[in-house]
Each structure stands twice: as structure tokens, then as C-alpha cells.
Amino acid sequence: MELSSSNISNTYFVKQWQTWAGSLHRVLCMQGGDGDGSYAKNSEASASAITLCQPLLLSALQSMKLFFLSKEDADSIRVADLGCATGYNTLATMNMVVNTLTQRYLNVCGFEPEFEAFFCDLPSNDFNSLFRSLEAMFPDGKARQYYAVGVPGSFYHRLFPRRKLHVAVTLSALHWLSKIPDAVLDKTSGSWNRGRVWIEGAKKEVVEAYARQSEKDLEDFLRHRREEIVVGGILFILMGGRPGSEPPENQLDADSRAKHPFTVSMDQAWQDLINEGLIDEETRDGFNIPAYMRNVEEVEAAVKKCGGFEIKRIEYKRIAEHSEEKQEEWIKDPGSYGRAKANLVRATLRPIVDAHIGPDLSEQLFQRFQNRVSSDTALLHKTCFYGVIIMSAIRV
């Protein structure tokens, strides 16, 4: 298929996918800022997942080892949020961890330790927006309970010296892979992901390539945290997951496949660009969403292989994408639902879509996605669930 003559200027962008895909850590991030398409304005699902896991996190903090029994001997308590992104979720979580541990030390030891809070994400993350939000939470000189530090880097590599951290949390981040598997980027390979942009329902070779990359990534993550967390410290994980009964090619349960933002409507939007002559099929096939939903068994196997951690609790749970009240509101106004879903995918995918086809075609893709979602009113009567895995472990 020939590209539209009006988009000759975009040919540079549409052939750059091999470059960005091989350097995913340079472009992968949640959309920064505070606009309608920003992660800060479109992280309700993540917020719901964090609310769901809060009781487990609180339980882990209430039972963790107290490292200092007197103020004279106390060092700072060091807490890291790995994959912090931007916005309210990471700040609220950090505040909860610090407040909980502060109260424990006051009740048991009679003093408040100092805290260091490390906000960690890839260098492409919008740390400026994050720290502006942090300052806004403590206006008029109100004292913050911790010293805040930004740490740019991949959590699939070492980020801290040995035995540095007392608490490490990662919330809604670990299902993002460190890279798109090399075989998936090779169009001569059996793992070339023709006709779709994610692995839900993909052929066996594609799914196996993703599963191998996921296994390596999780092992790397755990191995580095084993070095960084002190004995007795906590590792708390919340990440996208799938039911244990589902094979890897079924990343989603049956209730969610039609409505998930990475599946049908997204594939249709890419096909619209092809049909209109704006991109070719190779450009679409070269775009792959770098996410993999593990099951509990895969996580347990990785922890066992790594060693150094004792799992205290691990669960799979489902979260509805929105409330029943919101669904009723959107049934009355499908256009608003399309806009909301389009902003959600902008928040999560825009940086890598921009890198793949350029910002102009990227915006056209999201408009096609919005149109598809708005026009399929049957979707509004279905419920999409996001599966998550929650794990609490102690460094031993």
C-alpha cells in the first residue's frame, strides 16, 4: 500500500520503530504534565488497584521489623517507590508508608525516625510534574515528613547501594517489560506480531517470546532488590496479572477481552490508519505494547529461583474499570466514554506511539480509537476488569 502523499513528511517517523523499540527505556513513560491526556488525570484504575492493596501493605508495615530502638542509634528509614510515574498515587502511597511507620516507632520506641523517600522511574518520566505535585501537597511551609529524592533509572538494573532500603514498593509498573523481545521486532521471524499491537490472542511464537522476556525481567528485578533491601525489609508488589487458569496467550479474562484498551478498538484504530493510506502494515506490525500479565505461579517461581525473599502473601484480584454510576452516565453519552478511553490510552501509550509514528499521526491514531469506542455502544454494556497480582515479601 502506498502512503498518502500528504504524509510524505511522516515517512521519517514511521520507519523509526526499530530505533525506539531497541531503546525502550529512553521513551517509555506515562504521559507527563497535567493535561486531559496526562497520567495524572487518567490514573483512576491504578488508584483503585492501590486502594485494593492498601490493607495488605498496611499489614506488612505493621508487622515489619523495627530497625532502631532508640533515637540516639537511629539512622534514617529509607523507602523507595519503583516505577513512581507522576501524580497523586505515588505521593499518597509514600505518605501512607511514612505515616504508618512513624506511628509505629512512636508507639513502640517513643521517637520519630527520619525518612528518606526515593521516587524512582525511567529518565523519560516527568519528574518535574511529580515534584511540583509534591510541593503542592505541603503548602505554606508545612513540614514534609521525609526527604524526597528522584532516582532516574530502570528498576531492571541496580538503583541503590547494597542494603540501602528498608521498604521497596512497586505499584502498577512491573507488568511493563524492559524491552520488546528481539524476535518480535524481526519481520523474518516466526515471532513477528502481524496484524495486532499486543499479545492478547497472538500466535504461540509471539507469546513465548514475551513470556521469556517477562521471566528474565522479573528475575533481574528480584535479584537487584535482593541486594538493595536490608534483611528484614519489605518488598511490596502490585502489578497487572492474569488468572492462574489462563495460558499466557490469554492475557485477559473472557469478560475483558473485547473492551480492554489494548485489544480490539486499538487494533481497529491502527487498521484505520492503514486503510486511509497514512501508514503501511509493516509500521503497524512493528509497534508492540511492551506489557505482559503474569500469573501467581510465574511470580512464585521467580521468587523461589532468586532466593533471599520469603513471600508472606500473594493474591490475584480483579478490579472493575469504573463504577456502575460512571457506566450509567457513559451509556447516556457514548461520546464522553470515547473521550475518556482515548485519554486513558494517551496517558499510557502516547510517548511510545509518538516515538513510533510521530506526534501528528499519533494524535490521529487516538482520534480513530476514540471514534471506534464511541460508535460501539455494545461495549458500554460490558464490564472490563483489570487483573492484578499483589505480593508482600520479607528480605531474609
UniProtKB/TrEMBL annotation:
State the Gene Ontology BP annotations: methylation
Entry's SUPFAM superfamilies? S-adenosyl-L-methionine-dependent methyltransferases
Spans traversing the lipid bilayer:
none
Q: Which InterPro entries does the UniProt entry name for this protein?
A: MeTrfase_7, MeTrfase_capping, SAM-dependent_MTases_sf
Give a Pfam family name. Answer: Methyltransf_7
Q: Which UniProt keywords apply?
A: Magnesium, Metal-binding, Methyltransferase, Transferase
One annotated GO molecular function is:
methyltransferase activity
User: What name appears for this protein in its UniProt entry?
Assistant: Gibberellic acid methyltransferase 2
Q: Which organism is it from?
A: Rubroshorea leprosula
